[in-house]
Q: What sequence folds into this?
């Protein structure tokens, strides 16, 4: 009986990491120090949050979705990729769009708020959602048909700004509008996204 118990304890000690269950990909994954961890990408990563899966050397790093699923699975996490993403972009936290600040309560005795300075036409580095050389998925929708291609950004853009995307298969340049990190639209939907 004693050897049976010792065998079970040894098997548990050398087993693969326990499954932490399903996780959800964060809406805008960012990292602060260049070391991309599972906790930077997934909500609910638990004990696997500090597992480093990549090193970001520029403003962003791109992971293939299948590779990301495999890395998560090796650490006991289950990401089902319910939206069918092909790539996931992780940005430098310093260059990611900031979350809106909560509204302050109004005080009758407080001085009136100072008007903010107008923002330049081109988004500042902190407002970028796509940087030059990022891989970008471009969607073209017309008449209920949706086509997507992946290309390389030819410049920087904030949300709603135009940018050129080079189709890596054909070498052609597509005029698109940035809508999210690593995503843009072209065609009839582009003017409404601006």
A:
């Amino acid at each position: 009986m004693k050897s049976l118990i010792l065998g079970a304890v040894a098997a548990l000690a050398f087993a693969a990491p326990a499954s932490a269950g399903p996780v959800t990909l964060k809406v805008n994954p960012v990292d602060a120090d260049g070391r991309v961890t599972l906790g930077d990408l997934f909500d609910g990563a638990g004990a696997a949050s500090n597992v480093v899966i990549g090193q970001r050397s520029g403003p962003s790093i791109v992971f293939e979705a299948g590779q990301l699923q495999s890395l998560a699975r090796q650490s006991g996490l289950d990401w089902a990729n319910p939206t069918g993403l092909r790539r996931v972009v992780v940005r430098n936290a310093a260059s990611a769009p900031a979350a809106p600040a909560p509204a302050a309560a109004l005080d009758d005795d407080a001085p009136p708020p100072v008007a903010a300075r107008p923002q330049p036409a081109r988004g500042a580095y902190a407002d970028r959602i796509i940087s030059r050389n990022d891989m970008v998925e471009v969607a073209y929708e017309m008449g209920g048909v949706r086509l997507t291609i992946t290309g390389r950004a030819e410049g920087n853009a904030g949300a709603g700004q135009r940018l050129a995307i080079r189709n890596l298969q054909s070498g052609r340049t597509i005029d698109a509008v940035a809508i999210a990190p690593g995503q843009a639209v072209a065609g009839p939907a582009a003017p409404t996204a601006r």
In short: Helices lie at 2-13, 38-41, 65-74, 190-193. The mean pLDDT is 77. DSSP finds four helices and 16 strands in the chain. Residues 2-13 form the longest helix (12 residues).
